[in-house]
Amino acid sequence: MSYVPGRMPAVDTAAYRRTVMGVLRSWLLPALLAAGQAALWPGIPLLLDRPVDRVEVAAALTATALATIALGWRRKAPVGALAVIIPALTLGLIATPPESLVVLVFADVITLYSVGARRPARVTFAATAVLIVWQAIVGIFLYRDPREYIGNVVIGVVVYLLAAGLGRSRRRWRAARRDAADRLARAESDRRQASVQERQRLARELHDVSAHHLTSIVVTATAAQRLAAKRPELAAEALEFAAHTGRETQSALHRLVAVMRGVELDGGSELGRRIEELVAGFVALGQPVTTRLSVDGVAGPACEAAYGIVREALTNALRHAPGGAVEVALRQRDGSLEVLVTNGVATTPAAASGLGSGRGMEGMRERAASAGGTLEAGPEPDGGWRVRALLPESAASTMENSLRRVRGPRLADIAIALAAATLPVSLMVLPDPTMPRVDTTAAALATMLMAAHALPLLWRRRAPWAVLGGVLATTALWPAVAGFHLLPETALVALAAGIGADLVAVYAVAAYGRPRHLTWLSMLLAAGVQGAGTLLALTLDGWLLGQPVMPTVVAVALALVTVPFLMLATPVWLAGFLARIRREGVVSRERRAVAASTAGAVELAYAERQRIAAGLRAAVLRQAARVTEAAEEGRLDAVLESARAALAAMRDLLGDLRVDPEREPQPTAAAIDTLCRELRAAGRRVELHTPAPAPELPPAVDVSAYRVVETALGAGDDGPARVTLGYGPADLRITVTGVPSATAGPVAAGLRARVAAIGGRMTVDPAGTMDVWLPSRT
């Protein structure tokens, strides 16, 4: 927030909205709970002018106030809130009439949910145990009848377990979302650093060529020239060495260009086709490669990681085992993609020994890890080498794995199954003066039926359709129990409460079942089983009593069971389906974001490869070819000149690649004016002509434009020079006149390499004019 005299202070709308929403989330529920409790008791008795004890009212209001304040802090300090709510409820329950605080008693359940959602498992279990013990102790003072005491304690245990389990599920869900956010942040970081990392990797590759090939040619040729009078035989040796090393240089550079151009960014292409194209490139370089590909529909990071691992493994085989047989195998199994690359021993000398950065294995492991997989590599008994990677098949595999962890039989599933089994039985245990008592045998039979009915719910998230089938299968036992009068009427009424398990199964199918568009059939299936069970019960009852079963009565009874069940099941199914849509939408958005960032990183890295490959072809490879030609023709001076030009072009290219992002920013096109002023101050006649203002340029073009002008003006000419910058809608044209030293030799080779590296073109006039075209959109 900022304040300017005479004006209203500016408000951060987003921060204000977050603050308001935070207050509502914390205090709305406690306020509603307090209002509901006050309205129910003592509100209703006071409105009806019934006598109430002032002490009891004071105790109820005090307990409500304490519990409300504590509930407001449940999100920040749930354990502390629970420590206040327990004594407050104890005071209210003991000091007020029975059933007075029927709304406030949910305060401890709500707070326990917050404990589960915001604190570790050990704290949640400890809090749950404390509440169960507290419930058992307070129940001694509240319930005089043993059956009532046991029934209420059992219900309390089930409710506490359910609240803790749901809280734990919420905590795992939030943790999975934080993990997804971290993955997205890492993917975004990788995307931003993709160009830098690829430049650094390619710089190491090119440095090996420069250090082991071009430099040695320059040193050898220079020594031969210097000692020509004393040792004339060195010239022939230098020419032979230059011809041999020049061919090695060309071969190494061609391999690098082939590898750099091997990646195709066709988002809809299949991995198998891309691998085949990559293999064809290596076969053309003389490496025998066979493939066994069994992949279909692999995309995202797994696809890119597999491609990169195969490419790196083939490159290593070409470097260290040229001529050795290589086999590339890809197959899908158990939701993962297995990549296997094996190569035999070399059959020809390694022409490019020493080429590489030494980080190939580490890079492959990083690729596998970035896709959530693993990689193993090591020597084979026959002297070859083996690389094996196991990758999840999709970008969201780690997200789905984290979500799948939530779908195990967790505490919430146990509590739900326990509630579905025990709550109907508790109705038989609790004393009801209008219903006869249930004997021990009937209670035991009802308990076993309810346990079998609810047991499948433990796997409601893993196999929802199977769970629904198991729940409905046990429902088929009820007609026999009712028809043969194995249980008294009281027990049968309690068994009817077992319909809750059927509703939970319907919800599970809606939330987790596949295919999604057919989950609505769970409602009809459950309603049909309920109706058929009722029809069977009526049939058995009528047959046993010797009375005919009237079709009209059966139809009415069937409708009376099926229609109400559908009325209950429809909102339950809808709630589960909406929860599913929300959950899948969140995961899908995270998946798309990670995939987009990963694709962006791959695209940026690919663009770097293409720019560097263009630079190699435009300048370095051309000069390397001239080295070989001159050596074969016996022209040592031309060998030295071409080698120096190639080395200058290579080093200039390396200078671009090795820009350290941690150092201060590089000068850009906007600094060309400053450069010209500095040269004029030093006595050089330099004019700058810019017809149009400079637009925003891509970083690579912006820096290269300055470096091109700087190199051209600093090539060694002392005459007047003129620089013209022409900015077009999609390009930048740089014309420098009066710089003949920059239009030939090593300087021109280096400039061509720099320009070609960012997709530009350069033409020169021997009279001293240099014309450079650079794309302003890369």
UniProtKB/TrEMBL annotation:
CDD domains named among the record's database cross-references: HATPase_UhpB-NarQ-NarX-like (cd16917)
Regions that span the bilayer: 27-48, 54-72, 79-95, 101-116, 123-143, 149-167, 411-430, 442-459, 466-486, 492-513, 520-540, 552-579
UniProt keyword annotation of Phosphoprotein present: yes
InterPro entries (alphabetical): HATPase_C_sf, HATPase_dom, Sensor_HK_TwoCompSys, Sig_transdc_His_kin_sub3_dim/P
One GO cellular component term: membrane
UniProt EC number: 2.7.13.3
Enzyme class: transferase
Domain Histidine kinase/HSP90-like ATPase: 308-393
Keyword Membrane attached: yes
Reaction equation(s) it catalyzes: ATP + protein L-histidine = ADP + protein N-phospho-L-histidine
Entry keyword set: ATP-binding, Kinase, Membrane, Nucleotide-binding, Phosphoprotein, Transferase, Transmembrane, Transmembrane helix, Two-component regulatory system
Sequence ranges assigned to domain Signal transduction histidine kinase subgroup 3 dimerisation and phosphoacceptor in this UniProt record: 198-263
Top-rank lineage group of the source organism: Bacteria
Entry GO MF terms: ATP binding; phosphorelay sensor kinase activity; protein dimerization activity
Protein name: histidine kinase
Source lineage: Bacteria, Bacillati, Actinomycetota, Actinomycetes, Micromonosporales
